[in-house]
Amino acid sequence: MSYETLQRLITVLIPALGCFFAARGIIHYFQLESYQFPGYYHTLNRNPAHSYLPGACVAIVSALLILLLPDAAKLQSNSAPVYYWVLALSCAVLAALLGMLIGKLLTVKKAKKPFVFTGRIKRLYAVYALVLLAIAALVCASPRWKLLSMLWPVLLPAVVALAGLLAWPIEKLISEMYFRDARRKLLSNPSLIRIGLTGSYGKTSVKHILGTILSEKYPTLITPASFNTPMGVTRAIREKLTPTYQIFVGEMGARHVGDIKEMCRLVHPTIGIITSVGPQHLETFKTIERVAKTKYELIDALPEKDSRSYFYNDGSYCLEMYQKTTKTKTLCGRDPETCDVWCDGVTVSPEGTKFVLHIKGKGEIECQTRLLGDHSVQNILLAAAVASDLRLTLKQIAHGIEKLQPVKNRLELMQNPGGFTIINDAFNSNPVGAKAALEVLRQFPGRRIIITPGMVELGEKEAEYNRIFGTQMIGCADIAIVIGKNRATPILDGLKESGFEPANIYRVDSLDDSTRLLHTIVRPGDTVLYENDLPDHYQEA
Asked: Which of 145, 153, 248, 480 could connect to 59 by a Cys-Cys bridge, CB 3.0–4.6 Å?
C-alpha cells in the first residue's frame, strides 16, 4: 500500500473512530427522549455543552492527529514502511481513546436514568457505525478529504439523528412483531376484562389504586411502574400476562396526537378511564385542546356496546368529554346532584385522608387511606366507580382503599432520622399536581420547606406556570429553595410578587446543592416537600 493511500485511509478513519466513542452522551439523550426526534432536538438545544462540544472536540483532536501524519507527497517510496504503519495506526488508536475520554467527560454525571445498552441501543450503534463508515468513504473520495475530515465531526448530533432515522424501519418492524404477539396474547382470553386509562396526570396513581381495590375480588394485572408507551405495555403483556388474570389495566401515556389511538390498537379496551386533562406535554401538543383530543381517542376506541367510560367532573374538558360521548358512562366528583359517585366529609392530616364514599343506587361507606391530598380522593373515586360496576361490594372497596400505599415519588410520606418529615413528590410535576402538593404541605404543623426546580414540558407557557407556582407558595411554605438557573427566575419572581419573606428564599444550582443547604437550616419537626425532580435531559448546564 502506498504512503498516499494509507495516509488517506487513516485520515478519514480518525474522525470516524473519535465520533463513534464520543457520541455516548448524545445517544443517551436520544434514549431518554424515547427515540423521538422532536424531543431529541429540544434536548440538544437545552444542553448545548453536552450536545455540541463532543463533536467540536473530536474535530479539534482529528485536526491535530491528521497534522501529525507526514505528508505522503513529500515521501519518495511507493510503499509504506513499518514505522509509517505504526504511526498511522497509533493515530487511529489515539483517536478512539480520546473519543472515549471526550464521551466520558461530556456525558451527564450521576445520571438519574442511566444509559442502558438495550437491544435497540445495540442495533442503533451498529447502524451508527455503518453511517460513520459511509461518511468516511464519501470523504475519502473527495478531493478535499483532509479538510473535510477535520470539519465534519461538528455535525455529530445530526449524524446520530441520521443513524436513528435509518434504524427506524428496523425498529418499527421489530416492535410491530412484538406488538402483534402481545395483542394476540391479550385477546386470546375472551373473558379477560381490558381497562385502558389515560390523563394528563393521575394515570399511574389511579392504576395502582384500581389494581389494589380490584384485587379484593379479581386477579388483576396492572402495567408496572410508568410503563405507558406501546412498547412498555407490549413488554408487560408478553412477560407478565397469564391465563390466571381476570382483569388487565393498561396505563396509556401520550406526547403526540394519535398516541392513545395506537395504544388502543394494542389493548382493545372495553373500559376507559380519563383521569384529567391539563397543561402537560405542551412542548409537543402545543395546546390543551390537542391534549383533550388525544385523550378522547380512548373513548372513541371503546365498543359501542358492552363498554363503559369514567370521567371526573372537573367543570372543564373532562366534563365536556362526559357530555359528548353517547356510550355508557359514569361521572365522579363532589356534587351529588350531578355525579354518580361522590364523596363528602373529607378530612386530611399527616396520617392520611378520611371521607365518606357515596355510590348512586348502592349506598355509602366511611373510608380512610394513607394517601394524602384532595387529588388522591379524586383518583380513588374513579377507581371506586369502576370497582362498583365490576360487582365489588362497598365493604370490599373500602377495604381496598384502606390498603392503598403511596406510589413511589408521588406525595410519598417519609420520616428522616434527623426528626423531620419528607413529602416526596418528585415525579413529573404539573400545575394541578404542584398546587395540590402545596395544599398538602400547608396542613402540616411546624416549619414547612419546599425544594423544587419548577415544571417542564409546558411549552410557551412554562415560565408563566412557574411564576404562578411561585405565587402559590405563600401560606403553604415558610422556606423556599429553588433549584436551577434560567428556569428558577419565574418562580423567584412569583415568590417576590406574592410577598414571600425574601430572607427565606434560596436559589441553588443543583439538587446536591439543595441537600447541602437543607442540612444547614432544617430542624426537628420541620416538613420538607420535594416537588419535582427533573430528568437528566432537562438539567440546566
From this structure: 153
